[in-house]
Amino acid sequence: MADTERKKVIFSGIQPTGVFTLGNYVGAVRNWGPLQDEYDCIYSIVDQHAITVRKDPAKLRQQTVEGYALLLACGIDPKKSIVFIQSHNPNHAQLSWVLGCVTQFGELSRMTQFKDKAAKHADDINAGLFTYPVLMAADILTYNADAVPIGDDQRQHLELARNIAVRFNQRYGDMFTVPEAYIPKVGARIKSLQEPTKKMSKSDENPNATIYILDDKDTIMRKFRRAVTDSDTEIRFAEGKDGINNLLTIYSCATGKGIPDCEKEFAGKGYGDFKLAVGEAVADYLEPVRTEYARLMDDRAYLKECWTDGAQRAFRMSNKVLTKAYRKIGFVDYR
Ligand code: ATP
Ligand code: LTN
Question: How much is the pTM?
Answer without folding.
Answer: 0.94
